[in-house]
TrEMBL record:
Residues 4-80 form the 2Fe-2S ferredoxin-type domain. It comes from the Bacteria. Pfam families: Fer2 (PF00111), Fer2_2 (PF01799). This is Xanthine dehydrogenase YagT iron-sulfur-binding subunit. The keyword Metal-binding applies. CDD domains: fer2. Keywords: 2Fe-2S, Iron, Iron-sulfur, Metal-binding, Oxidoreductase. Signal peptide: none annotated. InterPro entries: 2Fe-2S-bd, 2Fe-2S-bd_dom_sf, 2Fe-2S_ferredoxin-like_sf, 2Fe-2S_ferredoxin-type, 2Fe2S_fd_BS, Aldehyde_Oxdr_Iron-Sulfur, Beta-grasp_dom_sf. It comes from Modicisalibacter xianhensis. One of its GO terms (molecular function) is metal ion binding.
């Protein structure tokens, strides 16, 4: 079908997408920009594997049309580390072995990084678990993920 040009910022760089109007951000990032760190799990907004930041907010990129991202700032897991320094969440996930197969990890880290910036989320474990409930882990690494996030938060 007919393609549309979408201008946006991805990981701090101005980028352009040529997409048909039905293409979701997830597929545009992976297929057009070759940013394959963002994973496709369910493709239906249920698993969180595809989580990226749009204007600093964690969103499921499988539910977001690429054409809706004109002028937006998108950050993917590839942009989480800055100036050669791992993000505190990345460091904590490493330290706490907060993954097994690793497939859900980019999405987990993007949600966790957004959580760290959100002062409305209380410090207790239950609040963090609730805030992370959109990110599923088939391996059940939830305990270590929670520990990593709590560590990164301190
Ligand atoms: Fe988007 Fe599962 S792939 S929520």
């Amino acid at each position: 079908g007919e393609t549309v040009t979408v201008s946006l910022t991805v990981n701090g760089e101005p980028r352009q997408l040529q997409v048909t109007p039905n293409v979701v951000l997830l597929d545009a990032l992976r297929d057009d920009l070759r940013l394959t760190g963002t994973k496709k799990g369910c493709d239906h907004g249920q698993c969180g594997a595809c989580t990226v930041h749009v204007d600093g907010k964690a969103v499921n990129s499988c539910l977001r049309l690429a054409v809706m991202c004109e002028g937006r700032h998108v950050t993917t897991v590839e942009g989480l580390a800055r100036d050669g320094q791992l993000h505190p969440v990345q460091r904590a996930f490493l330290e706490h072995d907060a993954y097994q197969c690793g497939y859900c990890t980019p999405g987990q880290m993007m949600s966790a990084a957004a959580l760290l910036e959100d002062e409305r989320i209380a410090a207790d474990d239950a609040s963090v678990r609730e805030a992370m409930s959109g990110n599923l882990c088939r391996c059940g690494a939830y305990k270590n993920i929670l520990e990593a996030i709590q560590d990164a938060r301190r």
